[in-house]
Specification:
- The chain has two helices and 46 strands.
- It is mainly beta and 815 residues long.
- It folds into four domains: 203 residues, Sandwich (lipopolysaccharide transport protein A fold), CATH 2.60.450; 169 residues, no CATH class; 244 residues, no CATH class; 89 residues, no CATH class.
- One of its GO terms (biological process) is lipopolysaccharide transport.
- Keywords: Cell outer membrane, Membrane, Signal.
- It comes from Blastochloris tepida.
């Protein structure tokens, strides 16, 4: 086995596990100390010794160096002139360059050119690594040696043990009946089995090859053997990156059966590498994967590809005879991700992907390996450049969307070319207040209109029922480009005597747009088809007023704060002459009650005179937390009410803002302490106080237990395509059973249809050397599938050896 480690780097990368180098160091270093003892007595100048570079761990053994002194202490020195031997006996300690060698007895045999260390041999390096042995033997030229009852403790918390170890041919160290683990023994019961260990008949370290080999190896977990390998290997600690096989990847699915992949990592150069993963599936044949990684001076990029020639297409046929996107012989994908820094403020990069079909990633459990988010419903291929200044921000990107849902129509998804955002805040302040400007440039195109039915109508491309009365347009066909720029100023003034807060503000904005609309499309029902430049302007002046009243009682502090905001501006112009692509997600609630422009994007701008008013209450209870409440309403004063003027998506209609007096919005939150939180958000009908929108969210964070729940109920919005009530509850929890074990669970329940549509359950074990997690996921709404998807994800991580996983996907289709 090997480990490809972190992404490659021009300077070489990162290290791997330490350990066997200490055995060689013990043999060499102890001999050096003994020679110094024999030649110089208890304290003498050290003479230089020549040997190869130390391996990996940073352990510098007690060895003779020019200009260094070595201190040797012992109860006594014994000279055997007849046999030409010298021995240090009793509590022998040899100090050199921060390292310490200890033994009961150290003997140097000049005739045999051998050194012997006996009894409680212990070597501690200045880096903290410790080697224990009962007996050692080494030749004078250091090329051959023997250690009995070896035990090694690395500073990186790795452990080797062996009945014996010997050194051959100058660069080969062999541990017999060896054991390796990266787990610490239990302090209360050292005999208790560790989480994992590898036992081998022989562990061989070949210094010249910089490799460690295991023969007849058994992997044990908690004392139980789980795997046997006649042979495996990994690089020694001096190797930053090493070609070789990685941990196997196992998976199971109703679509491809059982699969087994063995990745091969190929370290081509210090700055780039490739990983090849042939995966055999029992039902679909050979799946090939390849990944190229390269790190440059100012960034890095990856390229990944996968492909298969499927042998059994029947698993992609549903019970009703229809087929899924996977019903094709040849399937595959290629993707790439890159990011580079131009300097400390500017970076650019890309995300790119091409797929043979919408469900290839999910069908072969490849979505968890991509640069895109696991479970994502779409893929965004983009090129971007971003800059961040002290008072400015710039972002430009061009994006191509690919839908991963079977129900997505690719021609209806936009291509943006590009979207540019620039923000700047002036310094020093202007007229004593904050001033700045924003610029947005958007250009996009799509081939086919994206339509949704309202009132239960069919608005597909072939329908004859397409009209403003039956449909809304989510995306306009053709090419649409727009430039928007605005400047703002605001200043916060506090009256020192009464505490009244007055914030005057100004805003001026201009937009210019152009659309090239297809002449054959019915989009003229929703947006103007005139292929001409359209411009509009907006200016606003306003004042926000707050007067907090504070009352202090023995039980806490109360603050009652009336808030009023007056905005004067002309009507919104050119409504319907430009598409609304980015301002459709309008939700009127307490969070945007006092926003000057409540639209979510640039394609719409709020016009007409308006007053926003509310009352906020805050209570800080001594020892009992904080209560916050807000109740408010918005009033249209004069001119056109923008929210009552329909655009192609009917944005604003059924929003609660489309009448002269808006719906009421409210918020109530309570946080008794750092453990519990409870918040609720409301929208009440202005006429009869019916609850149109309600969200209740609560959470608790204990030392070992986390709880969270969200309940939502939303009224129909028939003019937006939502004809029924929507109501659901989502709950999640996480419990830390012990210092190592934890469980988690989540569920989403559709109260209208009375069914669970998503569940997730997981259990995890994690300690200093070992990680294990199992997750069970059920998704009743996964894209591209008609029936429930059940997934089991298994992952294991052995510190210093690598990680592997197993996933199973069952029940997604019924042939």
């Amino acid at each position: 086995m090997t480990d490809r480690g972190r992404p490659p780097h021009p300077s070489g990368g990162t290290g791997t596990e330490a350990g066997l180098a200490l055995v060689r160091t013990l043999l060499l270093g102890t001999a050096a100390g003994a020679l110094a003892l024999a030649s110089s007595g208890a304290l003498a100048p050290a003479q230089a010794q020549s040997r190869g570079p130390a391996i990996g761990t940073g352990l510098e053994a007690p060895r003779l160096q020019a200009g260094k002194e070595m201190l040797v202490t012992a109860d006594e020195l014994q000279y055997d002139y007849q046999n030409d031997r010298v021995s240090a006996v009793g509590h022998v300690q040899i100090y050199n360059d921060g390292s310490v060698l200890e033994a009961d007895r150290v003997t140097y045999d000049r005739r045999a050119n051998k050194m012997y260390g006996e009894g409680n041999v212990r070597l501690k390096s200045k880096s903290g690594d410790v080697v224990y042995a009962e007996r050692l033997e080494l030749t004078q030229d250091f090329k051959e040696g023997f250690v009995q009852s070896l035990r090694l403790e690395g500073a990186d918390r790795t452990h080797f043990a062996a009945a014996s170890a010997d050194r051959r041919e100058g660069d080969v160290t062999v541990l017999r009946s060896g054991v390796y683990t990266a787990c610490e023994p239990c302090k209360e019961d050292p005999k208790k089995p560790v989480a994992w260990q590898v036992k081998a008949a022989r562990i061989i370290h070949k210094e010249g090859e910089r490799m460690v080999y295991y023969e007849n190896a058994t992997v044990e977990m908690f004392g139980l053997p789980i795997a046997w390998f006649p042979y495996f290997s990994h690089p020694d600690p001096t190797v930053k990156r090493k070609s070789g096989f990685l941990m196997p990847e196992l998976s199971q699915s109703t679509k491809f059966g059982f699969s087994a992949g063995i990745p091969y990592y190929w370290a081509l150069a210090p700055d780039y590498d490739v990983t090849l993963t042939p995966t055999i599936t029992t039902e679909q044949g050979l799946l090939m994967q390849a990944e190229w990684r390269q790190r440059l001076i100012n960034g890095a990029y990856t390229i990944r590809a996968a492909g298969i020639h499927q042998e059994d297409l029947s698993v992609f046929v549903r019970s009703d005879g229809s087929t899924t996107p996977g019903y094709r012989e040849d399937r595959g994908m290629i993707e790439s991700h890159g990011e580079f820094w131009l300097n400390d403020r500017w970076r650019w990069g890309w995300d790119a992907a091409m797929l043979s079909d919408k469900t290839f990633l999910q069908d072969y459990d490849l979505d968890k390996h991509t640069v895109f988010s696991f479970g994502q419903k779409e893929i965004r291929s983009q090129v971007f450049i971003t800059g961040l200044g002290d008072r400015s921000f710039f972002d430009a990107r061009s994006v191509y969307y690919m839908g991963l849902s079977e129900y997505d129509i690719q021609k209806q998804l936009p291509i943006t070319h590009p979207i540019i955002d620039y923000n700047y805040v002036f310094l020093p302040p202007v007229w004593g207040g904050e001033a700045g400007f924003n610029v947005n440039v958007a250009s996009m195109s799509r081939t086919q209109a994206d339509l949704d039915g309202i009132n239960g109508s069919d608005c597909s491309a072939l329908s004859t029922d397409v009209s403003r009365n039956n449909c809304v347009m989510r995306g306009a066909p053709g090419t649409y480009s727009r430039l928007s720029a605005d400047m703002y100023w605001k200043k916060r003034l506090i009256e020192p005597t009464t505490g009244q807060v007055v914030t005057p503000f100004l805003m001026v904005r201009g937009d210019a747009g152009w659309r090239d609309a297809p002449t054959y499309d019915y989009s003229t029902e929703f947006v103007s088809s005139d292929n001409q430049m359209v411009s509009r302007g907006m200016a606003a002046a306003g004042l926000e007023y707050r007067w907090p009243f504070i009352a202090v009682q023995s039980w806490g502090t109360q603050t009652l704060e009336p808030i009023a905001q007056v905005i004067v501006r002309p009507n919104e112009s050119q409504i319907g002459k430009l598409p609304n692509e980015d301002a459709q997600s309008l939700v009127f609630d307490d969070t945007n009650l006092f926003e000057i422009n409540k639209y979510s994007g640039y394609d719409r701008v709020e016009g007409g005179g308006r007053v926003n008013a509310g009352l906020q209450y805050t209570a800080q209870l001594n020892g009992a937390g904080t209560v916050n409440a807000l109740f408010g309403q918005s009033y249209h004063l004069f001119g056109l009410n923008s929210f009552a003027q329909a655009d192609m998506a009917n944005t604003g209609l059924d929003s609660g803002l489309d009448t002269t007096r808006s719906d009421y919005v409210a918020r109530l939150t309570y946080q008794p302490d750092s453990v519990y939180t409870l918040s609720s958000h409301y929208r009440f009908a202005e006429t009869d106080f019916e609850v149109r929108r309600f969200e209740l969210q609560g959470g608790a964070k204990y030392e070992r237990l986390n709880l969270a729940a969200l309940y939502g109920r939303y009224a129909p919005q028939p003019l937006l395509g939502y004809t029924d009530w929507r109501e659901a509850v989502v709950g999640s929890t996480g419990l830390k059973i012990s210092s190592n074990w934890s469980v988690s669970a989540a569920v989403r329940y559709d109260l209208i249809n009375e069914k669970i549509d998503t569940t997730n359950f997981g259990i995890k074990y994690l300690d200093d050397c070992f990680g294990l997690s199992v997750n069970y996921v059920t998704d009743y709404t996964e894209s591209g599938n008609a029936e429930n998807v059940h997934k089991v994800l298994f992952k294991i991580d052995l510190r210093t050896l690598g990680e592997g996983g197993f996933s199973t996907n069952v029940g997604s289709l019924t042939p």
